[in-house]
Design brief:
The protein has helices at residues 8-28, 44-59, 75-87, 106-112, 124-131, 140-153, 171-180, 195-200, 249-253, 267-286, and strands spanning 4-5, 34-40, 63-69, 93-96, 160-164, 184-188, 204-207, 225-228, 232-235, 241-244, 258-259. It is of the alpha/beta class. Helix 6 runs parallel beside helix 7 (171-180). It is globular. The mean pLDDT is 97. Residues 49, 95-98, 120, 140, 270 line the site of guanine (GUN).
């Protein structure tokens, strides 16, 4: 069997097209959705993410507000900026780029963001709302994975799903989203015994461990859908590096029914889902109808 390749780049482009249409509808009602992104310090990878976020926000017709603060910014000053963004009526979504410098307590900063503007879905209140099956803002990467799974499989009800990884950003919210769609969910992690045996049961595998090519093809049940969240740098040819996922793509694709590639799979969906969350937050803030299929 050769797997269907799930083209996340094309999926994300379609999603952004849909969001742009909905932004136009919301603007016609007199509101422009706005996203504020806060970057503290000059981590080069974070700077690239933030630039891409700003560009894509503008491309779908939303307002983008960028706040770049120096590496030695005091926590109190960052909290003050967040307090201002919380009350700014032009701002519907706030994202504080992680990681933050070591002298700043990430939990305090995340807790300071207005729950209704928390488009990362990292605030404990949104985590609680998601895990109790209530309307929440949901972390972008797992939301993107869920959208691709629904598009590929239709109903997820009753399917065996194994999530490998238990991070707050991907593994745990992914498990909650799959539960919400009535899958039978197992969360596996670095201490799981017989990981291969556990993964072999799965109709859906979501790999989010951050270890290059950790999942071999002989762990995959024939026909399973494999979502690879990993983005790892590995040695390529002639001393260059290349991006690889958490799954060994060639051997997994030979067995799976469908699989996301790295790059070009889950990655492009994350920012598209950030835009979706910003639009959702804007609609909720203004009592406007929420577009179908953009939230969990
Ligand atoms: N750093 C890398 N990815 C993310 C993300 O999705 N959200 C935030 N806030 N920081 C990040």
């Amino acid at each position: 069997m050769t797997a269907t390749i799930i083209d996340g780049k094309a999926f994300a482009a379609r999603l952004r097209g849909r969001i742009a249409e909905e932004v136009a509808r919301v603007k016609a009602a007199g509101v422009t959705p706005g996203l504020a992104v806060v970057l503290v310090g000059d981590d080069p990878a974070s700077a690239v993410y933030v630039r891409n976020k700003g560009r894509q926000t503008a491309e779908v017709g939303m307002e983008s507000f960028e706040h770049r603060l120096p590496d030695d910014t005091a926590e109190a000053d960052l909290l003050e900026l967040i307090a201002r963004l919380n009350t700014d009526p032009k701002v519907h979504g706030i994202l504080c780029q992680l990681p933050l410098p070591a002298h700043i307590q990430t939990d305090r900063v995340l807790a300071a963001i207005d729950v209704a503007k928390d488009v990362d879905g990292f605030h404990v209140s949104n985590v609680g709302l998601l895990s109790t099956g209530q309307k929440a803002l949901v972390p972008c990467t797992p939301l993107g994975c869920l959208m691709m799974l629904r598009a590929q499989l239709g109903s997820l009800a009753g399917l065996e799903a194994v999530v490998i990884g238990r991070s707050n950003i991907v593994g745990k919210p992914m498990a909650q989203l799959l539960l919400g769609d009535s899958a039978t969910v197992t969360v596996a992690h670095s201490r799981t015994r017989d990981l291969g045996e556990v993964v072999r049961r799965a109709d859906i595998v979501v790999a989010a461990v951050g270890r290059p090519r950790m999942v071999p093809g002989d762990w995959i049940k024939p026909g399973a859908t494999v979502i690879d969240v990993g983005i790892n740098r590995a040695a390529g040819e002639a001393g260059a590096t290349r991006l690889v996922g958490d799954c060994d793509f060639e051997s997994c694709a030979a067995v799976a029914g469908a699989i996301t590639p790295v790059p070009g799979g889950v990655g492009p969906m994350t920012i598209a889902c950030l835009l979706a969350n910003t639009l959702t937050a804007c609609c909720r803030a203004h009592g406007l109808a929420e577009p179908d299929g953009l939230a969990a």
